[in-house]
Design goal:
Layout: E1 6-10, H1 15-26, E2 30-35, H2 38-49, E3 54-58, H3 64-77, E4 81-86, H4 102-130, E5 133-138, H5 152-171, E6 175-182, H6 188-195, H7 201-206, H8 216-227, E7 238-241, H9 245-251
Parallel strand pairs: 1-2, 1-4, 2-3, 4-5, 5-6, 6-7
Helix pairs in contact: 1-8, 3-4, 4-5
Length: about 260
């Protein structure tokens, strides 16, 4: 067991979770990466271990018993979780409710929504025992407005509400629970969709206030802020990290046009 604070990152093998694991490791946390991608996760943990302690745990977050078992192992190996970031998730493509595959729909909920609850329960209990901790769930701009991703979109809205429920339930134990809501972040997973013609970069850029999208590191920085002492009275919020998407998506599609030439 280490004496350092422990950060648990689900989905830490790649993308936003990997950037978050790197950031917490650079801030002297021991990092536990829970993911189904063993190959990448083990490489990440090995790279992070050069500067401290990092371990990979092969764990499918959709399996409540597996998450519980891994939480017990993390506590034994490293210590109780101080930080939990739930970044494990599946990212879909546009589809209609009438035509979607219900098995894929249910799988999306099991990983994205149930996986978030499972991690919050298993590691939240460790935090309750110590009366301290911070949890950040991965929401999305999908938490805020409808987009044609009928399993993913309502799931992210549900994660925002779950975050509020947990904030109240765990607040009396000194635990804060918040969410981040990224806009499009060009992780390898999303870049592959762009390359396959499944996302239109021009359309994406046309509705943001800023002309730059957040990087995985920008999301990690927002997560680290929400977990820090500077955010000690912030709980139950969804922090959009969206380059002005929420402000721009209605403004820039106004039927009367924008008051400057684009
Ligand atoms: N990239 C974006 O544009 C974007 C925007 C908003 C929100 N998000 C959210 O951020 C999170 C991370 O997205 P990303 O872009 O980094 O994706 P990513 O594909 O790079 O990372 C997701 C990770 O989750 C892991 N994972 C998948 N299923 C799992 C399971 N059942 N158990 C454990 N691990 C599992 C994957 O192996 C992968 O390492 C997701 O929740 C996603 O919805 C992403």
């Amino acid at each position: 067991m280490t004496t350092q604070a422990i950060a648990v990152i689900t989905g830490g093998s790649s993308g936003i979770g990997a950037a978050t694991a790197r950031l917490f490791a650079s801030r002297a946390y021991s990092v536990a990466i829970l993911d189904v991608n063993r190959d990448r996760g083990e490489k990440m943990a090995a790279a992070l271990s050069a500067g401290g302690t990092a371990r990979f745990y092969d764990c499918d977050v959709s399996d409540a018993k597996a998450v519980d078992a891994v939480a017990a192992r993390v506590e034994k190996d490293l210590g109780p979780a101080e930080v939990l970031v739930t970044s494990a998730g599946l990212i879909p493509n546009t589809e209609s409710i009438m035509d979607m595959d219900m098995e894929a729909h249910d799988r999306m909920w099991r990983v994205n929504y149930n996986g978030t609850i499972h991690a919050c329960r298993s590691f939240g209990r460790q935090m309750i025992a110590r009366k301290r901790g911070a949890i950040v769930t991965l929401g999305s701009i999908n938490s805020l407005l409808p987009l044609p991703l009928p399993a993913y979109n309502p799931g992210k809205a549900a994660i925002a509400r779950l975050t509020q429920l947990l904030a109240v339930e765990l607040g009396r134990h000194g635990i804060r629970v918040n969410s981040v809501g990224p806009t499009y972040v060009m992780t390898e997973t999303l870049q592959a969709r762009v390359d396959a013609g499944l996302r239109d970069v021009n359309k994406i850029m046309s509705v943001h206030a800023l002309d730059t999208l957040p990087s995985p590191e920008d999301i990690a920085t927002a997560i680290a802020f929400l977990c820090s002492a500077e955010a000690r009275t912030i709980t139950g919020v969804l922090l959009p990290v969206d380059s002005g998407w929420l402000a721009g998506v209605s403004y820039k599609t106004y039927a009367g046009g924008v008051p400057w030439k684009e």
